[in-house]
Specification:
- With 259 residues, the protein is mainly α.
- Helix content is 42%, strand content 8%.
- It folds into 2 domains: 113 residues, Rossmann fold, CATH 3.40.50.1980; 127 residues, 3-Layer(aba) Sandwich (Rossmann fold), CATH 3.40.50.
- The chain has a two-stranded parallel sheet. A two-stranded parallel ribbon has the order 3-4. Strands 5-6 form a two-stranded parallel sheet.
Length: 259
């Protein structure tokens, strides 16, 4: 999947399936993120390919329930750097077992990556202190930031649910507009892989109630940016989001609209 592609809605191409069926090892995310790829994953299993769900090792007590009553969990675990660190360790373990001749190098690279993630996690915690507590509210197009909010002390609201396959209703938008007007939240956010229309409808609704809310810089939720851009890796994507959030909600938020 390229930059800006929504994994909730992605349907694999014939070439995708061919590559998956010829691979020595296939990692997939799990937690129903690849909803439209379920059939292909089942084919891989039947063909005897080695499959590894990245999120399988996470304790269910650390996952965020999506409240359907069917034991389903929010798949956006990468928004928690500590949880994604555990996933990275799991990937390294599976790779080292599958390719033992390269195990030492894999472990070395894994250790470096874990250290980089730890620095990223600490930076997020420090930078978010620049946002006054009453403004630590992250309002986005769809519900991709619950892990981020839980780990880093932000309340999270969204127009759509966990999957972008769900449609937002008039009441969803109206309730969010009421919340924004009452709480006087200065900014809301669009996402790179999600249609802007719902967030723009919320902004218009706030204006109709006599309030004002800016649309902050674009956040990356379900997709990285271009490989040569400022959000082309996991850490740079998290730092890009961090900068956007702090610019829009921080102490100097009034002076930094970058629409």
């Amino acid at each position: 999947m390229g930059p800006g592609v929504d994994p909730h809605l992605y349907t694999p191409t014939r070439n995708d399936v061919r590559e998956l069926l010829s691979a020595d090892l296939v990692f997939y995310h799990g937690l129903n993120l690849e909803g439209r790829m379920a059939r292909q994953l089942a084919q891989l299993k039947q063909s005897g390919r080695q499959l590894a769900a990245v999120t399988d090792i996470l304790p269910r007590g650390q996952l965020r329930s999506i409240g359907t009553g069917h034991g389903e969990f929010d798949p956006h675990v990468w928004m928690s750097v500590p949880l994604w660190t555990e996933c990275a360790k799991h990937v390294a373990k599976v790779l080292a077992e599958r390719f033992p001749e390269q195990a030492a190098e894999i472990r070395s690279r894994s250790e470096n990556l874990v250290n980089e993630f730890a620095h990223c996690d600490q930076e997020i915690r420090e930078q978010l202190k620049r946002i006054p507590e009453e403004r630590r509210v992250l309002v986005t197009a769809h519900d991709a930031f619950e892990y981020f909010g839980h780990d880093y002390g932000m309340r999270v609201r969204s127009v759509q649910g966990v999957s972008t396959e769900s449609e937002a209703g008039v009441k969803d938008i109206s309730d969010l507009v009421t919340f924004l007007v009452e709480q006087k939240i200065p900014a809301i956010f669009v996402e790179s892989s999600v249609n802007r229309r719902y967030i723009e409808a919320v902004q218009s609704g706030v204006a109709a109630r006599g309030g004002s809310v800016r649309i902050g810089d674009e956040l990356y939720s379900d997709s990285l940016g271009p490989a040569d851009g400022p959000a082309g890796t996991y850490e740079s994507m998290m730092r890009s989001n961090l900068g956007s959030i702090v610019r829009a909600l921080g102490d100097n938020a009034e002076s930094v609209p970058r629409n």
